[in-house]
Amino acid sequence: MKPKKRRLVIILAGLSLFGLATGLVLAAFDEGVTYFYSPTDLVEKQVPQGRMLRIGGLVEEESLVRGEGLTVTFRVTDLAESVPVQYSGILPDLFREGQGVVAVGKLEQDGVFVASEVLAKHDENYMPPEAAEALKKAGQWTEGDGQ
Amino acid sequence: MIAEIGHYALIMTVFVVLIQATLPLWGAKQGNAGLMALAKPAAQLQLLLVLVAFLALTYLFVTSDFSVAVVAQNSHSAKPMLYKVSGVWGNHEGSMLLWILILAIFGAGVATFGRNLPASLRARVLAVQAMIALGFLAFIVATSNPFERIIPPPLDGSGLNPLLQDPGLAFHPPFLYLGYVGFSMAFSFAVAALIEGRVDAAWARWVRPWTLAAWCNLTLGIALGSWWAYYELGWGGWWFWDPVENASFMPWLAGTALLHSAIVVEKRDALKSWTILLAIITFSLSLIGTFLVRSGVLTSVHAFATDPTRGVFILALLVIAIGGSLTLYALRGPALKATGTFAPISREGGLVLNNFLLSIVTATVFIGTLYPLFIDAIGAPKLSVGAPYFNATFWPFMVPLLAAAPMGAILAWKRGDLLGVLQRLWFAAGAALVVLLVVWYVKFGGPILAVFGMALATWLVVGALVELAERLKLFRIPLADSLHRARNLPRAAYGMTLAHAGVGIVVAGIVGSSAWQVEAIQIMHPGETAEVAGYQLTLEEVSEVQGPNYTSQQGTFLVSRAGSEVVRLYPEKRNYPVQRMPTTESGIHTTLFADLYTALGDRQTDGGWSVRIYYNPLVPWLWAGAIFMVIGGVVSLTDRRYRVGAPTRRRAVKALPTGSAPAGT
């Protein structure tokens, strides 16, 4: 095979792989992307039901019920609105009332957010960016807080 | 006093590095041997100064000098010694100092052992290396001085994050950084070659060991991090496609591609321009990884507190390093002429396919990791990209790559015979088919894809062994002759066999743990028994235990199988009073084929405990496979080829016993 033709074969193979990759990426985005909502968004906006989404904010004080079976309930607040969250499983170590939290799950018919994953944080001073975002949107956050 | 010495050493380093980055480069351009020779003592002095700074910080941590801000914020007098030392890099400032130290070690390594490098290439490599060091030193001195004092000093420190007080994580950052920074060598060589305008087999022989060393460390670092997440976070999982994980995985993927393409440059004098580009990309991804983790732009299960002003600084460094090197590549890259030609079906063709697929996978991971940041930057609604995306884009390219690997390794250089290769691999294909049928028959209730996954893993492992047997002409010539061939076979060949087999073992681990994991989350009271995957686990008691700097609720599980006692597991819920922070310690029983995994959750108001019990098939194989890959890399590093042309003095190294090599020379 002539070097020119060889190069053509390689370039064509590369391009077709690239095309395939682009197609797969676009298709996978459809399924793999979860949008972020603040508690205010959930109350005010139309939120698609049955779709995976993420919410963030603070764990509302005195809303946490744990130790009564496997299902844990608490409320996530951006200090303007709050949503009830239900989670079956074991909470992360640093999950505490008054702290930043991000939950991944679905919003049910009755307005309860059923979480399949709850992310807190790795250290004392860390605030998940999405939790900070929710507070910012609700006007309850000034730059420099919590850092 | 010690802190001031450290700080002073750092500032001195800035001046040394300034000289190292400029004069040798100018000397190489002018052909001035004196200026070029400056690079060597400068690189060695740089190492000495950074070492002084690093040891000073270590001393401050070990002696718990709380008048230094970093020590006060990240250490505590009651902490065990191991974690006082690992606390040095368990924080932002110290970890950046470690980054620089490793950079200086690599640079001094080239300066000291690079006697057989052309003088101008060595001068340029060290100058580029110094530029990288300059960027990071400026970063440390300007935004993250580890030696800053606080007045008045606190009585005691606030302690290291308890999650980091763990042997697995104590050594995770150094290995990760050895990997990241090791790729800086490939980058410096690439940029130096672009300035030089010449890439040849000797260049590739110089780049490959550095890349290989970096790759081994990165592999080990990623494996340690994954292992830590597995036993420490208490979720039973080991990989979450989390942005912080991806940040270290991208340079690994690109580095793996670089390892393979450098072989083609060395052996066949082809793919030069591509290899240079890959070296630039690999190190750029290392820088991006550092940026992602250090800047705090990510929502991650692994995120730690960060300071946004630092992110801007690293971003600027990124733009200069990546933009500068790519511009240089655009200007000088086309001048690199390759002489080697090859047919599409050949060893080179196989390695090109490897590079195609690895690059595409790197790109898809990159898009998935960076897309949320991009969306956030343009002000669109916040979103995140999760595991379904990564699984859907990673495996369609990874599976063909893994399926092709045993074939590529057997194909001849220049022009190969695919049919002949397949004939020689019949044994591997047969073994894969047997495993496929056996797994299908037993099934374990797993999905059909898992059946093929196990067959793929077998194909990889047996294929790697068949390739070795082919080289030795095992069973085709008398055994004594085969053994003779075994002695003369280059170490790199053994390295490849070990590494490819390791990949196969990892694949088996991935398939097993994701397809056949058994999970039981339930409330248990002391005395109750749970049944998981044929094991009976009885929660005997939960008692209070006192550790060196924590208190712990320790559960005792009696594990038995078919009526006979197997083991007792002790999962813990620890509480670190200094940080007022709990951590979970899982209790794991490891066998050859599976892990039995227990973790304690919340105490119930009625005296029970929520517990997680997992049966994780083949998870130990993940770690074993990673170790095989690393050993393969190390064995390959000892190949004589990399010492050819070295002065006789260094031949003495060969006389040392190398235990890890299957057949020492």
Outline the fold blueprint:
The complex is a heterodimer of chains A (about 150) and B (about 675).
Chain A: H1 3-32, E1 33-37, H2 39-44, E2 53-59, E3 71-77, E4 82-88, E5 100-107, E6 113-119, H3 129-137
Parallel strand pairs in A: 1-2, 4-6
Antiparallel strand pairs in A: 2-3, 2-5, 3-4, 5-6
Chain B: H1 2-30, H2 33-37, H3 39-62, H4 69-74, H5 81-86, H6 92-113, H7 119-143, H8 167-170, H9 172-196, H10 201-232, H11 243-268, H12 272-295, H13 308-332, H14 347-377, E1 383-385, H15 387-410, H16 418-424, H17 426-442, H18 448-472, H19 479-488, H20 491-515, E2 518-524, E3 529-532, E4 535-546, E5 551-561, E6 564-569, E7 572-576, E8 581-585, E9 587-590, E10 594-603, E11 609-617, H21 619-637, H22 652-655
Antiparallel strand pairs in B: 2-11, 3-4, 4-5, 5-6, 5-7, 7-8, 9-10, 10-11
Helix pairs in contact in B: 1-3, 1-7, 3-6, 6-7, 6-9, 7-9, 7-13, 9-10, 9-11, 9-12, 10-11, 10-21, 11-12, 11-14, 12-13, 14-15, 15-18, 17-18, 18-20, 20-21
